Amino acid sequence: MNNIVLPDETQTDSSSDDETSLVVVILDSNPGQKMLRDSPHVLTHCVDSIIAFANSHLMQKAQNKLAIMACHSKTSQFIYPGQGKHTDVRQVDGQYEVFTAVEKITKKNLAKVLTADSSTVTKESLLAGAIAMALCYISRLQRTKPPGATLNCRILVVTGSSCSASQYMNYMNVFFTAQKQNVVIDVCALDQHLSLLQQGCDITNGLYLKVPQLQGLLQYLLWVFLPEPPIREKLVLPPPLKVDYRAACFCHRQLIEIGYVCSVCLSIFCRFSPICTTCHTVFKMPALPAVKPKKKKKI
Amino acid sequence: MAEEDDPKEYRWETGYEKTWEAIKEDDEGFLQASVADMVQRAKRKRQALKQGSQKLGMMRHLFLLLDCSESMSSQDLKPTRLICTLKLLEIFLEEFFDQNPISQIGIILMQNKRAEKISELAGNYRKHIKVLSHLNRTNLLGEPSLQNGLEMALSSLKLLPSHASREILVIMGSLTTCDPGDISNTIENLKLEGVRCSVIGLAAEVHVCRQLANQTNGIYNIILDDNHYKDLLFQQVDPPPAAVCLESSLIKMGFPHQLNNEGSDEPLTMCMCHVDSTEDGSKLTSGGYYCPQCFSKYCELPVECRACGLTLVSAPHLARSYHHLFPAANYIEVNFNNQTFVCFACQKLFGELDKQVYNCPNCKKYFCIDCDIFVHETLHTCPGCATNPLTFQIALTN
Ligand SMILES: [Zn+2]
Ligand SMILES: [Zn+2]
Ligand SMILES: [Zn+2]
Ligand SMILES: [Zn+2]
Ligand SMILES: [Zn+2]
Ligand SMILES: [Zn+2]
């Protein structure tokens, strides 16, 4: 027997206990993020590291699946396998050719994304939206997989931007959906600490890592994010940080320990106000701090 | 028993006769596809009705009135009405608290003309599930008394503060009720207190149930089969429109954070939630959530502080409910004529089978029907809107 067995395209998911892993990598390519504004060439380094990471993932198991998305300033899109039919790519028949295909397609499609819009620059990367797309993609693969097959899915976000509270609602929606669908969200922060995305990792049992130095990105990707979630428990990984789940008031975006919540829309305020600025409900005057509700008859 | 978990396992022959006729009218020859299609269409329809009513009762207090009379031993649901009900309730409770994280449920049994409260109003679903799990060996006796059940629920709901949304969900297997007095007085009182009462009948229409639901703005339905039963239960997961007499107020809440133990180990302390429990779980622990007002410790959120009464939640608990208030805009169904070749979200290629595609009124992207349903049932964020700097906050402004 040969030591190296080239996987054959036709032998996919034959046995029912075969588990397949899908990784959807979301690369933040928004030129508005601070890291890229300071030194645009960093992106090439990131892309190369991600492609190497992606190929390592595909190498681990013949059936493993991969998708790569670019989260750009005006939209997000899949750059691998690429939108729709890619007729221009020659049919690949061996694993090694898959590797070159990943690099070729990813770079070609990313170049398209990068050149497509350069007009307006937004600082904020809409990562929650990209994750939403990834979840739809994953949900389709789960729906259409052969009966009996198991598909373990995770999303890896690689970004140099910072979190902003303006996407709070979208972030929470995608985190809870991922949790429900058993999709793990991993986050690799390249430049700044991301407190909201860190909550997402915590909610979905993913890993959060702020890389100490960008030069070693590939090492971090391979050591921390390549192992599948069930294996991770056995590895020595960076200890989980305590996640700050305190609420930020809607009025000043300040972290608070005690606040007032609108009973109609659940908006959070740091002090009593007679009207809810979110849903415009008018409140009656503050109730006594008494807790045990006394029997009160309405007039 | 596992088949109840499979959503595709519809028992068309028993329940959905009308749908069956519709399937035959389809002349495309894709029978299976069109059945699934119809289910999807029904889902879209229900979704479309959801939007609109903006004032919802978010802080729900719901009493589950469970018929445990002799009629529940009937085997028209497999294996019995009771076992089937308990299994569905387990899934329902989990979903309910997932979608209504700061709400509370209590459980009352109706059996042998009496009512018995087996679970007090509380927000911890595991506790309720435990109580329910002991019920499968219960003796199903005599007739239920709907009036006694309702009165017992009402006496608890009456005590709640005025901003609390009050509801009763009756699961009724029996066709009769044995009441000590005039039930219409009870219904009148429920109406006065703004308690919304819904009934799921397992057998056939009962006049008094219809009356109860109608008078209190509830819903009354009779199940067709176990899948329909699950459907009806899950309709109760969405918060109902706020009752007219529901007062709005600002409620003081605490957002505890885990104390940072920088290097030093936290002392082992007893948490308040397990302080009087005799189970194995009651151990001294380090770490936990501390009430910001009185520093009592709890190992789980959300919880109402036993010492000072402050409701303790985490911000994501509240965020789980926001989608009820800020839903993603409904997509518009349009005939497919090559507007685009791929679904924006899931990358499915549109082909000949896609007669309709779905267009978001805000971001103008096109989606497949599966994504339409996934976005509006589960995700609650439009992927097209959320990736566009012009529209990513649109749900908040609508
Ligand atoms: Zn404030
Ligand atoms: Zn409000
Ligand atoms: Zn405890
Ligand atoms: Zn307290
Ligand atoms: Zn789709
Ligand atoms: Zn949209």
UniProtKB/TrEMBL annotation, chain A:
Record flagged with keyword Cell wall biogenesis/degradation: no
Compartment annotation: Nucleus
A cellular component term, taken from the record's GO annotations: transcription factor TFIIH core complex
Gene Ontology BP terms: nucleotide-excision repair; regulation of DNA-templated transcription
Molecular function, one GO term: zinc ion binding
Keywords: DNA damage, DNA repair, Metal-binding, Nucleus, Transcription, Transcription regulation, Zinc, Zinc-finger
Domain of life (superkingdom): Eukaryota
Quaternary data: Part of a TFIID-containing RNA polymerase II pre-initiation complex that is composed of TBP and at least GTF2A1, GTF2A2, GTF2E1, GTF2E2, GTF2F1, GTF2H2, GTF2H3, GTF2H4, GTF2H5, GTF2B, TCEA1, ERCC2, ERCC3, TAF1, TAF2, TAF3, TAF4, TAF5, TAF6, TAF7, TAF8, TAF9, TAF10, TAF11, TAF12 and TAF13. Component of the 7-subunit TFIIH core complex composed of XPB/ERCC3, XPD/ERCC2, GTF2H1, GTF2H2, GTF2H3, GTF2H4 and GTF2H5, which is active in NER.
Role summary: Component of the general transcription and DNA repair factor IIH (TFIIH) core complex, which is involved in general and transcription-coupled nucleotide excision repair (NER) of damaged DNA and, when complexed to CAK, in RNA transcription by RNA polymerase II. In NER, TFIIH acts by opening DNA around the lesion to allow the excision of the damaged oligonucleotide and its replacement by a new DNA fragment. In transcription, TFIIH has an essential role in transcription initiation.
Family in the record: Belongs to the TFB4 family.
Protein name per its UniProtKB record: General transcription factor IIH subunit 3
UniProt source species: Psylliodes chrysocephalus
From TrEMBL, chain B:
PANTHER family, per the entry: GENERAL TRANSCRIPTION FACTOR IIH SUBUNIT 2, GENERAL TRANSCRIPTION FACTOR IIH SUBUNIT 2-RELATED
Keyword Zinc-finger on entry: yes
Record keywords: DNA damage, DNA repair, Metal-binding, Nucleus, Transcription, Transcription regulation, Zinc, Zinc-finger
Domain C2H2-type residue range list: 358-381
Gene Ontology MF, one: zinc ion binding
Entry similarity comment: Belongs to the GTF2H2 family.
CDD domains: vWA_transcription_factor_IIH_type
The species this protein was found in: Psylliodes chrysocephalus
Predominant location category: nucleus
GO biological process: DNA-templated transcription; nucleotide-excision repair; regulation of transcription by RNA polymerase II
Protein name per the record: General transcription factor IIH subunit
InterPro entries tied to this protein: C1-like_sf (IPR046349), Ssl1-like (IPR007198), TFIIH_C1-like_dom (IPR004595), TFIIH_SSL1/p44 (IPR012170), VWF_A (IPR002035), vWFA_dom_sf (IPR036465), Znf_C2H2_type (IPR013087), Znf_RING/FYVE/PHD (IPR013083)
Keyword presence, Lyase: no
Localization annotation: Nucleus
Residue ranges of every copy of the VWFA domain listed in the record: 61-237
Zinc finger regions, C4-type: 291-308
Assigned GO CC terms: transcription factor TFIIH core complex; transcription factor TFIIH holo complex
